[in-house]
Design brief:
Distance between the termini: 54 Å
Shape: globular
Largest sheet: 8 strands, mixed
CATH architecture: Sandwich
Structural class: alpha+beta
Strand order of the largest sheet: 2-3-11-8-13-6-5-4
Order of helices and strands: HEEHEHHEEHHHEEEEEEHEEEEH
Helix content: 25-40%
Bound molecules: the ligand C=C1C[C@]23C[C@@]1(O)CC[C@H]2[C@@]12CC[C@H](O)[C@@](C)(C(=O)O1)[C@H]2[C@@H]3C(=O)O, 2-oxoglutaric acid, fe (ii) ion
Number of strands: 15
Mean pLDDT: 90
Low-confidence stretches: none
Length: 331
């Protein structure tokens, strides 16, 4: 990344170092052991209260994680001119500082991939080893997707709805519109008590997002009172976000969590995120069984994932994207 002067860095957004919840009593990020029988109930509770949790005993082979991370680190270490051959990210490819099509910026560089992977665009960049990278992405994504489906099935069981694949089938569908992203947040020079925004606050539009990072801090989630809670990094665990589409499918029971990343002044952060989405034609509406078979009103007007995605790509990162689809309460 190019070194910038302090005023130039301000365009990425700065926050005071003490702007987060650190001293108020807080029980901590929900921790779910996927191998335990009570996982399904704890998952439901975490999705209702935070829309966010950490999982252990996830079954993802360490080798898949380290292989992909080391390929990603190699890629991000290339000269900018080489990396740019895989860009711009519109929507897939290499991106640097610009996030999305509507003027958002952050102290981040990234690769966005369609997990059905068309690596042709990357062939020139990855040179002799496109197959190696392709295999690393494939193994990692297949394994994380399986875990995401396991979590979604446990959630259906915990909610007492049938069939248990009611959510997971949307990711398993051969036309599932999922996205895979690797973010790199380089360290930045000291800004006298200020933190630089790496990835601005937002909610993820899809059903579920599964994140793994190296041991560098930066991720924060918004609590109900609007304060920011730093998420301690843990390279051996995965973090899961409820996305906007899941909030709608559950008629608002599960919360799509607002989150952001602050860049670290000392260490690089590398994160890999699988965003599990449904097929484009999928109707997104509360499940009838969660509307008490007609007793409860839907909070949202009906839409397809295609419509929501189109609308999301017209929005700015921090926008309340679901707001446009909420039904106005009758007076
Ligand atoms: C500003 C934007 C970037 C984003 C597309 C959008 O217009 C609004 C949603 C953003 C987001 C957030 C979660 C994921 O990182 C992402 C890939 C997604 O599906 O929605 C990004 C989009 C992006 O970076 O292109
Ligand atoms: O990089 C991270 O840790 C999170 C980034 C994120 O929220 C996203 O890419 O949607
Ligand atoms: Fe996100």
């Amino acid at each position: 990344m190019v070194v910038l002067s302090k005023p130039a860095m301000e365009q990425y957004g700065l926050v005071k170092n003490n702007s987060c919840k650190t001293n108020t009593f807080f029980p901590g990020i929900p921790l779910i052991d996927l191998s335990k029988p009570d996982a399904k109930h704890l998952l439901v509770k975490a999705c209702q209260e935070f829309g966010f949790f950490k999982v252990i005993n996830h079954g993802i082979p360490t080798e898949f994680i380290s292989r992909l991370e080391s390929e990603a680190v190699k890629f991000f270490s290339l000269p900018l001119s080489e990396k740019e051959k895989a860009g711009p990210a519109n929507p897939f490819g290499y991106g640097n500082k610009k996030i999305g099509p509507n003027g958002d910026v952050g102290w981040v560089e990234y690769i966005l991939l369609d997990p059905q992977f068309n690596f042709q665009k990357f062939e020139t960049v990855f040179g002799v080893t496109p197959e190696k990278i392709q295999a690393a992405v494939h193994d990692y994504v297949a394994s994380v997707k399986k875990m995401a489906c396991d979590i979604l099935e446990k959630l259906a069981e915990g909610l007492n709805i049938q069939p248990k694949n009611v959510f997971s089938k949307l990711l398993m569908h051969e036309q599932s519109d999922s996205v895979f992203r690797v973010n790199h947040y380089p360290p930045y020079p000291d800004l006298h008590g200020r933190n630089l925004i790496g990835f601005g606050e937002h909610t993820d539009p899809q059903i579920i997002s599964v994140l793994r990072s190296n041991n560098t801090s930066g991720l924060q989630i918004a609590l109900k009172d609007g304060s920011w809670l730093p998420v301690p990094p843990d390279q051996n665990s995965f973090f899961v976000n409820v996305g906007d589409s899941m909030q709608v499918l559950t008629n608002g029971r599960f919360k799509s969590v607002r989150h952001r990343v602050l860049a670290n002044s000392l260490k690089s952060r590398v994160s890999m995120i699988y965003f599990g989405g449904p097929p484009l034609s999928q109707k997104i509406a509360p499940l009838p069984s969660l509307l008490m078979n007609g007793e409860e009103d839907s909070l949202y007007r009906e839409f397809t994932w295609f419509e929501y995605k189109m609308s999301a790509y017209k929005s700015r990162l921090a926008d309340n994207r679901l707001g446009l689809f909420e039904k106005v309460a009758a007076s």
